[in-house]
Amino acid sequence: xxxxxxxxxxxxxxxxxxxxxxxxxxxxxxxxxxxxxxxxxxxxxxxxxxxxxxxxxxxxxxxxxxxxxxxxxxxxxxxxxxxxxxxxxxxxxxxxxxxxxxxxxxxxxxxxxxxxxxxxxxxxxxxxxxxxxxxxxxxxxxxxxxxxxxxxxxxxxxxxxxxxxxxxxxxxxxxxxxxxxxxxxxxxxxxxxxxxxxxxxxxxxxxxxxxxxxxxxxxxxxxxxxxxxxxxxxxxxxxxxxxxxxxxxxxxxxxxxxxxxxxxxxxxxxxxxxxxxxxxxxxxxxxxxxxxxxxxxxxxxxxxxxxxxxxxxxxxxxxxxxxxxxxxxxxxxxxxxxxxxxxxxxxxxxxxxxxxxxxxxxxxxxxxxxxxxxxxxxxxxxxxxxxxxxxxxxxxxxxxxxxxxxxxxxxxxxxxxxxxxxxxxxxx
Length: 428
Known about the structure:
Elements: E1 19-23, H1 35-41, E2 45-51, H2 53-63, E3 73-77, H3 80-83, H4 89-103, E4 109-114, H5 116-120, H6 125-136, E5 141-146, H7 156-165, E6 179-183, H8 188-200, E7 206-209, E8 224-228, H9 234-242, E9 246-247, H10 255-269, H11 274-299, E10 303-306, H12 313-324, E11 327-333, H13 338-345, E12 354-358, H14 360-370, E13 374-377, H15 379-387, E14 392-394, H16 397-400, H17 409-427
Helix pairs in contact: 7-9, 10-11, 11-17
């Protein structure tokens, strides 16, 4: 049977770790990157970046989508005429939107996505969204959010997008039954697995946010309980709580242990008996543990170093340490939200070194001194570190890949074992 793992145990973890805070040069990806997984999830939405040709090249190369594939994203280019004030940016944007919506009648929600260039020239996309919504409602809803990389890390693009959607969510009737809302973009296959497990426990009043179609927005209110499926949704959490929804505290559903504790939080809130919980989760938990055992052979005892990038670092460190036996040299994270991470922090090994923020030169020095077996970092650091003899894993791949839940636990572990196996083969 699945053992219930205590979360708040000072003996088992570091509930109050010592955190180093750094400020200096950072190496992070752009928040526009979130469009890559959001446009796949919300199938009737379109993401129009208001930015430069550099923004367009970034999205196109990151997505790997051909022009003729009709993707659900694009870029309204801010060019020299706009910057010089020779053209009215709002008039030009209206023309682009009108042309887009006439060509793509399938669009039901249009996101105007701010970028570094649009913010530098102070283009007010919130007013533009209101103006365009009045023109195109009820066929199309127009919203806006910022994907600028000036003061953010790349996963905050999703946080900003979902935060922009919260005000337009319908209101759940005060007399309605309690509903569970799973918050954070999940691959459809993972969503289906989670829905099936929760339904087998009797939790059928269930919604996922974002939904697969923007016209199917979930209703929320005081009877809404929500679980975060992604750890980087701090602003979305605040927006949902302002609407009366209540967050269920739990570790994130990474690995067999994390998934069990995540599901247990919902089961406890709904009064699911321990016997029923065990009956539903026992088989997938056992499959996950068996699959992880095969990966543990390659990872146990290996030292890992995290550069701050995705905000997934702390849950990943917990998973790798507790379920795969890896040693944690340093856990760097762009932002440490103690409220969202309290259950994860309690499960880290005593003495874990956490760094919030980044001074990249100092962290590189510590990385070389630690001589880790594997380094998790952004694309900008990976190639130089590989050239210096270190083995790396791209942090962004951990967001692009389905990694949540029991059935994906071994796939998640393999993302870390694969570079180590590759290094061994190259050295042979």
